[in-house]
Every structure is written in C-alpha cells, then in structure tokens.
Amino acid sequence: MRTGGLRNAASGLFSSVVLSFYFVAVTPGDVPYLAQRICGICAAAHATAAACALEDLAGIRPPQNGQILRNLILAAETLQNHIRHFYLLALPDYVRGPQTRPFTPRYRRDYRLLPETEVRLMAHYFEAVDFARIAHEIVAALGGKAPHQHGILAGGASVPPDGALLLDLKAKLERLARFVTEKMLPDAETIAATYQDYFEHGQRPLRLLTFGMFPTDPQRTRFCFPNGAVKDNEVQAVEVNAVVEHLRHAYFEAPENEEVPGRAATLPQPNKPGAYSWIKAPRYLLEAFKGGLWRVSG
Amino acid sequence: MRPKIIWLTTNSCAGDILSLLNARHPSFHQMTTHYFEFYFEPFTMAAEGSSVFSGVDNALAGRAGDYILVVEGNIPTAAKGRFCVLAYRNGRPWTALEAVKELAAKARYVVAAGTCAAFGGPYAARPNPTRAKPVSTVVPQKVINVPGCPVHPDWLAGTLYHLAAHGEPELDPYNRPVTYFGATVHDRCPRRAAFEDGCFATQPGELGCMHRLGCKGPVTYADCPQRQWCGEYTNWPVGANTPCIGCASPAFPDGVSPFFEHLPDFKAPFSLPAERAGLLTGALTALGIGVHLAANIVTDRLGRRPKMSHKARRRVARAVKNFCPASLSSRIPEKPLEAGPT
C-alpha cells in the first residue's frame, strides 16, 4: 500500500494459520466444521465456503429451506462480525473509554469528538457487546453453538425451525435492526463526519471483487448481494479462474509465476527475507482487489 | 482488588476470546469492570504498537504471583518459534514461545483457554508443520486446562473466578476442572433415551440419537448438554441435530475424526426384537467404545491417514453424495458444475 507516494505501509499476520496444510489429509465431510477453525469471528463464512465446495464436488445442491437456513446463520454471524469490528476493534481509535484497562494505554492525540459524544459512543460500545452476542444467539439457535457452529453442512442445514424459534429469531432481529439503525449507523456517520480527512489517507485505485453472498436459490445463480468485479469504474463479470496466489512477501516459497489456489504449493519459509506476513496475497487479474460484501449498483 | 489477567493470543483463531464475549452473566462488560482486570488482552485493548508493552513490562517488573496468565492458542516450536510472532518488541520478533515462557515465570496460575492451548487442537493437527505444542509442554509449572473449541465462557470465567477467590479447583488427570469436565456428553445427553431405545438418526437434521452419525459424546467430557451455548440455554450441537465432534477432547481433531463416522460397536449376530436390540446395542456400544479407545491409544491409528489419491478423491466425492441422500438434496443431472459461485 503506497500512501501519498511518500512511504509504504505494510500490514501482515505474524502468526501462521496452518489449517490449510491440514485439509489435504482430512475426510471431506469434516471440512465445513474444520475450516471454521481458521477464524473465530467469521467461522460460518468458512463453513459456507467449504459446504459449497463439497456440493460442487459431489454435484448436489441443498433444498431451498436448507439454503435459507444457511443464509440466516451466515447473515447473523456477519452482523455479529460487523458490530464487533466497528465497536470493539475500531471505536477505541476514535473514542476514549474509561481511564482503565483495556481502554488505557491508548493513542495520545487526535481524539476529536466532543466529550459528551465520546460518552454516548462509549455507552453504545458496551451495548454492542450484548447485541453482538444476540446475533451469535441466532447462530447458536440454528447451528448449535457459536463460534464454530454445526448447522452449515454440505447438502443443507440441520435445524428445522418451528413457530417458537421463528418468533424468537424475528424478535432478536428486530432488536438488532433497531440497534443498527438507531445507534451503529449514526455513530459511524458521526465519526466519518469528524474525521473527513481520513478518507484521503491510503487511497488506492477502486478495485472491488465479490463472489456473491446469500444465494436466493439453491442453484446459486441469484444472490441478495450479487457477484461482480469493479475495475476502472466498470462492473465486470467475475472470472473465478483469474484468482492467483501472490507469495512474494509472504513467508512461503514463491514460485516464479503465480499459481491458482489448489495447484499452488504451500511451503513455509519462516525466515524468508523481505517477507512480512503469513497470509498468502490473492490477486485477481494479477492485481490487488478489495474483497468483501458490497452492493453492485447501476 | 480485581484479579489481574494477562491474556496471550498465540496460534489460534481468536474464537476463545470471542466466546468469552458471548458471556451473559456476568457480561464481558461486567467482567472487565467488576470481576477481573484484563491487564493485557489483545482483542479488546485500545493500545497499539509499542504502547502495548507497558502492560507486559509492568507485569514482568512487578512481584511474582501478581497475575493469572491465560493463553489462547498453542505454541509453535519449529524454527525457534518463528511460526507465531506476537509482535515486534524492541525491534525484534517476540515469539509466542518466548512470551509464554517469560510471562509464565511470574504468573500465579497458568490457564490454557480452549483446546489448542490445552491439548494442541486444530492448530496442531497432523501434519503439524509448525510443531505446535500445548502450553503445558513449554512451561515448567502446572497448567490448568479449560478446553473446548471454543471454550465455553462459563467454563473459563468460572475457572478464573475460582482460582482468584478459592484457589485451584478440583482437577482431573488432564488438569481440567472436574466441575465442568467430570462426566461425558453422552451421560448427560437429553437424547440418551433415544440411544437406549435404538432410535438412531441416519442423517443430520433428524431428531434421534446421533451415535450412528459419529457422535463423540461417549468419549468427550463436558457439560454442553446442560449448559448449552450463547445466551441462556440457546442450543448445543446435538440440539442442532448434528453429532458432538468431541471439540473439548484431548484428541481433537485427529483422534475424533472423521466426525461423521461412528465409533465402532458390535452387531448382534442373531435377530432380536426391536425393543431389545436397542438395549443390547447400548450395552455393547459402551464396551465397543472402550475397546476402540484403547486400540486408538495403542496404535494411534485414527490420526494417521495417507495422502489421498485421485481415485480416493472420487470415492470420497461419492461418499459425500451418499451422505446427502436424495430426500435432502436435489441432484443436478446435467453437465458437471463449473467451479465457483455464479
């Protein structure tokens, strides 16, 4: 990442996530459960990817209800993820909490919000801890526990909801929706308005990539969040085979040419000079794209 | 004075701290303000960069026994620990191996939170290229193991509270608190009656006993069936009509997988009335599980699995297909699917 042409900033993961080695030796049916263990906060996303891959391998598709239930689990977990990232991980950079740990020590400058705004946002921080749990309760209701739920399986989902459960989930979602619209979004807007100059930091060309999220049919042809790639201000169709692994700065032996995932070898080199991360960098059309959930509009 | 906690996140998924954030009473907020002082905890602390080390430095300069060290994740030992660098401290990589040894030296207690820290877990699964080890193998003192993948917030908070208020709780031979890990999931299972009656689920999503689907409840010590997960008694894996995968077991995941392959039992070589068959399988299964476990310990065979050939992969694809029978899945007869989601 080049910031203003002045200096480079690098962000890396210093701890190796070794599960990828492991899947070569494991029973495929176990992968949706094991893949989750890559990440505690986005576990169901890994389970979903694993279940979809197994279904592709076996040439099957889940029934419509199974698809809906899996979407619900993943969506609830994504809500939990967003709430925790925004409040627990990002907010303390802008808002000073109480004069105790874990809120001290902290940055010494550039807190710009008014004291009363800080107090209000901090109150929301503590509410967010509870609301993130409520989102995880939805995951647990449909998946047994959270993180690392059991409900997402190749072939469908495992909890047939009854009236009581549906009401329970609706009530929880209604509370979550109220929290997000009345508190979380206004808080994000408050910070964005106060730190407008931060939008200019670390800019890079607009390149976005998403594979589609929350399919509305079992064949996975239509999505609530459609797939697409944005480059040069144009929306293009996603070419799955254009994804390669870029290993120059990762602690892995780098082949001369970038390889596609699946064919690429994973040979760790913990003392590789010039490397700074254990994450393999994915490249789309040999360029860095920002992945994730976004809406293709227009 | 609230007991001081120093929490190190080593090779892991951070699922254990996230699970602790799901605590209900006390909530994580109450925990940090009323019951414990999270003196150093990477997930929630506001500090970044070099400022984080004041907590570590103060703890190391203070008197011994001033804090409880909680470790989440296992400790890679290959390449001098370079597979897990927690931070750059004074300009050089501070590995999990160094950090845990350094901080354990002055800790009042060392607690391993989650299966990775306690027993190795998924992050030490075969072939374990980082030679990751449980915390107890790299520090000299006794480590109190609170396993689970993730650890249940009650198990961890309860153990920490007990340590601070009453000292060491009663531990089993694996150094797990007996209160939470004293009986098997199978013994406490609300579907035990289905097991005794021989009502076995044949695929995930059915309401019967999960034994035939590979439930590891009979060999896993934990109180999930009663305690359940997330909020107030929301659910647990068997409640979600899926098998227990033994995530709190010292053998997880190598020794308890394949998750959907059931523990061996004996088949009656003669015909029995249906209501008697369940009883007999019940009794014999218990015996079979014992034999199976003993055999496992002797030969270590479940974890050792060869690399898959192309043929084996095809066979597995078929098995996955069979695992999702027609009633559950709509088959796609025409052309093979293209890779990817579109």
Arithmetic mean of pLDDT of chain A: 88
Radius of gyration of chain A, rounded? 21 Å
| Euclidean distance between termini CA atoms of chain B | 57 Å
| Helical segment count of chain B | 11
| Shape category of chain B | globular
The percent range for strand residues of chain A is 5-15%
The class by helix and strand makeup of chain B works out as alpha/beta
Order of SSEs of chain A: EEHHHEHHHEEEEEEEE
Helix percent band of chain B: 25-40%
User: Tell me about the biggest sheet of chain B?
Assistant: 5 strands, parallel
In total, the number of strands of chain B is 10
Quick one: how many beta strands of chain A?
Answer: 11
Short note summarizing the structure:
Chain A has 298 residues and is an alpha+beta fold.
Give an overview of the whole structure.
The complex is a heterodimer of chains A (298) and B (342). Chain A has six helices and eleven strands. Chain A is an alpha+beta fold and 298 residues long. In chain A, the strands form four sheets. Chain A has a four-stranded mixed sheet with strand order 8-7-4-11, with no helix packed on it. In chain A, helix 4 runs antiparallel to helix 5. The longest helix of chain A has 32 residues, at 163-194. Chain A is globular, with a radius of gyration of 21 Å. By secondary structure, chain B is of the alpha/beta class. The chains are: A alpha+beta (298), B alpha/beta (342). Chains A and B meet through helix 1, helix 3, strand 3, helix 4 and helix 5 of A and helix 1, helix 2, strand 2, strand 5 and helix 11 of B. Strand 3 (60-61) of chain A pairs antiparallel with strand 10 (330-331) of chain B, so a sheet runs across the interface.
